[in-house]
Amino acid sequence: MSNPQDRLHQPTLTTHGIQPENQETPISFLSTNAMSSELFFKRNHFSYPTLTYSNYWLPINGLVSTPKVFSLQEIVKLPSKTIKVALECAGNKRSLFEPKTFGDQWGKGAISQGFWTGVPLTTLLEATGMNANAKEILFEGYDKGKRTDLNNEYSYSRSLPLEKALDPDTIIAYEYNSQPIPFKHGYPLRLIVPNWYGMASVKWIKQISLISSEFKGPYQSVDYVYYPNKENDSGAFPVTTVNVNSTIQQPVDRDIMNTGTHVIKGIAWTGTGKISKVEVSTDQGETWFDAFHEPPNGSYGWSSWTFEWSVYEPGEYTLMSKATDSFGRTQPLEPFWNRKGYGYHAIDQVHVKIE
Ligand SMILES: Nc1nc2c(c(=O)[nH]1)N[C@H]1C(S)=C(S)[C@@H](COP(=O)(O)O)O[C@H]1N2
Ligand SMILES: [Mo]
Q1: CATH 3.90.420.10 correct for 4-238
Q2: Domain-wise residue ranges, the chain
Q3: DSSP character string of 125-143
Q4: Cys-Cys link to 216, which of 74, 76, 118, 221 (CB 3.0-4.6 A)?
C-alpha cells in the first residue's frame, strides 16, 4: 500500500467480450479479501442499460395488498444490513469442461467478493403486504435485447421462490464496500442472493412483482438450467445453489519453481453451510494433507487457505485442492458435465515444474 512500487504491479481483468462486457477477475493475484470494484468480474447479457437516475423509483406490484413505489431516499433510510458475499458466475471454470461447452470460456476468475449493503427484501414487503397466492417474486432488470435463439426482445429478468426471496439475507443492495454500487455492477439497486450462483443477483432492478405461477423467462427456463445430456433436454434441472469448490491461486498453472519450501494458497467456498475442510495433494491425489483455512465467520465469503509445501526432488508435479463443507458436500474428482457448462466444481489442479 505504502510502497510506491506496488502501484506499478497491479493486476487487471481478463476480457472475454466487450459488448456485452464480460471480464474475469485476476483471481491468482488478489491481495485482499474485500476486492476493489475495479477487480470485480463483470458478467452481462446485454449492452449496459441507459438510466436516468434523477428520478429513480422502485415499484413493487402484483400480488401485494398495497402496491408501492419506493424512492431511493426512502430505501436508504430503512434499516440496512451489510453482508460479505462471494458472487460466483455459474459459468466459472467453464473452459475446464471436457468435452468443451459453448459460452464464454471463463477461467477460474468468474468469482469475486466484497461487502454488500442493502435492505432485506422482507422489509420492503412488510410495507406492501403479500397476498396468500403469491408463489414467486420476479425481478426485472433495466437491460434488454434480442437473443440468438428466440425472436422476441427480453429484459434480464429472473424470479425467486418465496422461501429464498424471504430469506433475511436476500437484500436489495445499494452499496458495495461502503460506496454506491458501481454502474456496471447494478447501480443504483441490485439484488444480492447469497448462496446462489450469480445469475440470481439481478442488476439495475426496474421493478419487483409478486406472481402466482412459475416464471418461465429464458434466463431461467432456457439458460441457467443443467442439461446433463448433449442430445436432448432429459434430466434438466435449474441452476441454483453454489457447489462446494476451491481454487489454487498460487502457484499458477505451469509455474517453474526452485526446490525448497513454497506456500500453496487458495480460496474455498460453498453455497451450503460453511467450509469445514480444505485438503491439498502434491502427488496427483494419492495422498492428501489438511490445509490451514480461515475459520468460518458467519458470512457468505470464501475461506482463504494456505499449505506449506517442501519439495526437494526436481520434476513435474500436480497440485490439487479439495474442499468439503459442513453439509458433507465435497469436490468430486470428475466434473458434472452438462451441455451449457454450469457449476464446474471438480477438484482444482495446477501443474508445476520444480528445477
Ligand atoms: N440485469 C442484469 N443482472 C444480471 C446479469 C445481467 O446480465 N443483467 N447477469 C447476471 C450474472 S449471470 C452474473 S454472474 C452476475 C454478475 O454480476 P457482476 O457483473 O456485478 O459481476 O450478475 C447477474 N445479474
Ligand atoms: Mo453468471
Answers
A1: yes
A2: 4-238, 245-354
A3: HHHH---TT--EEEEEEEE
A4: 221
